[in-house]
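Before the break, one more example. Copy the sequence into your notebook; we will annotate it together after we see the structure.
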Amino acid sequence: MSEILSFEEFVSKRNEARAVIKDYVIDCYIKKVKEKLLEENPGISQRQLKMKTRQARDSFKDSAKCRELMEAVPLENVSKSLRKAYDTYCEATKKFIAYEKMKKDVVEAIPEQIKDAYPKARLLRRKFILHIGPTNSGKTFAALEKFREAREAVYLAPLRLLALEVYENTNYAGVDCSLLTGEEEAFIEGASHVAETIEMADMNKRYDVAVIDECQMIADEGRGGAWTAAILGLCADEIHICMAPHAEDIVKRLIEYCGDEIVEIDRRERMTPLELDPDNCRFPDIVKPGDALIVFSKRSVINVAAELQGKGIECSMIYGALPYETRKAETERFLNGETKVVVATDAIGMGLDLPLSFLPIKRVVFLETEKYDGYEMRLLKPEEVQQIAGRAGRKGIYEEGRFTACGGRKFIRQSMKMSPEEIDFARIRFPGFLVAVEGKLSGVMKRWNELETESLFLKTDIDQQIDLCLWLENHSDDKETIYRLINIPFNEKNDDILFLWKTLALRVAAENNIDLTREIEALAREKKRISGMTDTSQHIQQLEFLYQKYDLVHNFIRLFGKLDTRDANKELLRKKKKEVSDELTAILKKKKLKRRQCSSCGRFLPYNYPYGMCSDCYEEMQARRYNRYYGYYGYGDFEDY
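Here is what the structure looks like once it is written out:
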């Protein structure tokens, strides 16, 4: 369908017009049938009338008589209905033609090879140095030395914690370094170095040296496209890539695909041996100073810490939802000997909780061997087990590292011996230049999802972005603004945070640049309410959500804040975020955590007990139900039978 038919052509050729004429003929015929039935049977019931007219309609609608009458209908009798059908046809056809054009434009806008979407990088002959090794092999340390020695350099981290740590250490070493993440920024005047989260990478700026860390995340369904984009598009003379061994093949193939050169491969082994601890493992009896106890949810971290507290064992708690300042304070308590044990999530294995990678951990203890990955509960993969266990035994502190598990010990031992599967594809994200393609952005994004990619690549998951885009298109036609809004990272699974994003997005759609002083003050009032909570677990959770809201507001200030209030808003926000992190730090230091208890007798329950009632109380409850049931029917005394 390449053009819209004229009205006359529509009437003669389109099924929609024939349907209008047919409906008119059937209505006229049924009207006469009803009149005849009523004339011949004055006392006919409504039910009989409906049944007989339905029978008449069914026998008439496909008959030769109907077709004959359709040919004889004067068009002026149905002109109004035909015009309405024609207008509907024209509107649908215009949308279809626009959609087909958009589909064609998307295909034409994408280069035949994805690498050519980065023309500036293609003009360079880039040199790559690969740093390959397991956890605690010193691969990132070696790359960061080159980063600090360079005249102008960028460090790309998987999360802001790494970027912030590199920013602090580089400035401490006397090299001016700025910080840029989605949630925080600190620009040092005249700085030649910058530490960034990988999504913030500037593909147009030229560097002497670039460091891309944790490159095995290139296969991550949600974020892997940022690592692929960095390898394909960074404009740097020398690029250092730090990765686990199972990412080596795909990274080499990408560099070859770009036509660039690998000048050095720095293979590293662990600097200390890593052994299975021979002692039997039973929590909490086995806990020793220097242990890192690994679980896979924030709830488990808090429950384990509460159980240790009940046993008089002081511990540090570190997990993903805690603000960086709070994690750092918990880390320092462990380093200073104030606590003897760390309870943490698996993020330490991927290097996402950087302070832990520098902690004097003697032994890693897996309290759990399953995790929820956003889709389902599953067993840990070998590479996850190896990365987490690898945090034990830091060189210079211990001569060896140890690992063990409380439950699933055989599984952990076997996983440590297995070779992880090689990564055989790289993720690619939605290309920003497709925003310029004519048509609704949601349609362009859906079309991108339909296209096949080169064999090296798989697309990242953009379903959530498409949903947000569809919602925003009801309020704005500005595709550039919509694209920037849907790429703001936030916890969309939390209804309050999603509501805040929608509220601010609507303001941006209406005003373009906004003053967020009012929102910051509203969140400050929310903190006063939270500070009055008596339930420690709820208090911690609500403060974490509040910190995430402040992070979201920061992104809106950075992208859409009014110029005359932007700096003041950022300063106020920094102050409010510090208040939240300070309060969280104080709560965790007091460790007045509530242990799990039986809902009936109040007995303390193990952190991982699957029920809310102890087994004794459950059996007693079942016995009471049994006695009530059989007593009711007279079967209580079995001696009578």
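Confidence is low (pLDDT under 50) at residues 350-357, 632-641. The longest helix spans residues 79-109. Try to locate both features in your own notes.
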